[in-house]
Amino acid sequence: MAFKIYTKTGDKGETGLFGGKRLPKSHIRIESYGTVDELNSYIGMLRDLAPKEDQKSLLKEIQDRLFTIGSNLASDPEKNMITPDIHEADIVLLEKAIDEMNELLPPLKNFILPGGHTTVSFCHIARTVCRRAERMVVALNHNEPVEEIVIRYLNRLSDYLFVLSRKFSQDLNAQEIAWRPRKS
Fold first, then answer.
1. What residues are paired with 16 via a beta bridge?
2. By the 8 A CB rule, do 166 and 119 touch?
3. Bigger pLDDT: 22 vs 52
4. pLDDT, tens digit, for every residue of 125-143?
5. First-to-last CA distance in the chain?
6. Does the pLDDT of residue 172 top 70, yes or no?
7. Phi, psi torsion values for 115, nearest 5 degrees
8. To bridge 19 with a disulfide, which of 28, 51, 79, 114 should be the other Cys (CB 3.0-4.6 Å)?
């Protein structure tokens, strides 16, 4: 018998967590891991567009970590479930990549307008979705405990994505467009 993708259990606006608990699809927990899933999709697009193999490799690693975060957020916090976890080394990996890219980039002197190349633009979209995921998880943490390292990882990931957008601009010979406020 073939596996069916539809269960019809969500037809009335609820979904189940790992562990069985059912929540409205509008619950902050569902919004949190749904936004992490959206982010993971954009990271997948970036991986497909990345001009260098080392970039593709790290983006694949990030996708794995986002699945880890999603599985934690999708688990019933009232049950003691064993789920994969994020480690300090995952954050250190992002920080190391940020530092290595920054060494190759000109100093940042202005805010940068998103754009200049399709790949750069998608990187900025991923960055803003990452920030939204972080805000959602922080809001969730006000109601139900979330491991602090998850919030730190998402925060560092958005920093990484910003620097990666600049590196993509450099690698793709795209112009970085500085924001210049209008003079009144």
1. 22
2. no
3. 52
4. 999 999 999 999 999 999 9
5. 69
6. yes
7. 135, -165
8. 79
Q: How far is CA 137 from the centre of its chain?
A: 12
- Say if residues 140 and 73 touch (Cβ distance below 8 Å): yes
Confidence of residue 120 (pLDDT cuts 50, 70, 90): very high
Q: Please state the pTM of the whole predicted model.
A: 0.90
Give the residue among 114, 115, 136, 126 at the shortest CA–CA distance from 29: 136
Please give the pLDDT value at position 96: 98
Torsion of CA 30, 31, 33, 38, to 10 degrees: 140
Q: Give the tokens for residue 130.
A: 């990452």
Alpha-helix runs per DSSP H in the chain = 28-49, 53-73, 88-104, 118-143, 148-171
Q: Do you know the residue count of the chain?
A: 184
Is the distance from CB of 37 to CB of 25 less than 8 angstroms? no
Q: Select the more confidently predicted residue: 84 or 174.
A: 174
Fold of 25-75+85-178: Hypothetical Protein Ta1238; Chain: A; (1.20.1200)
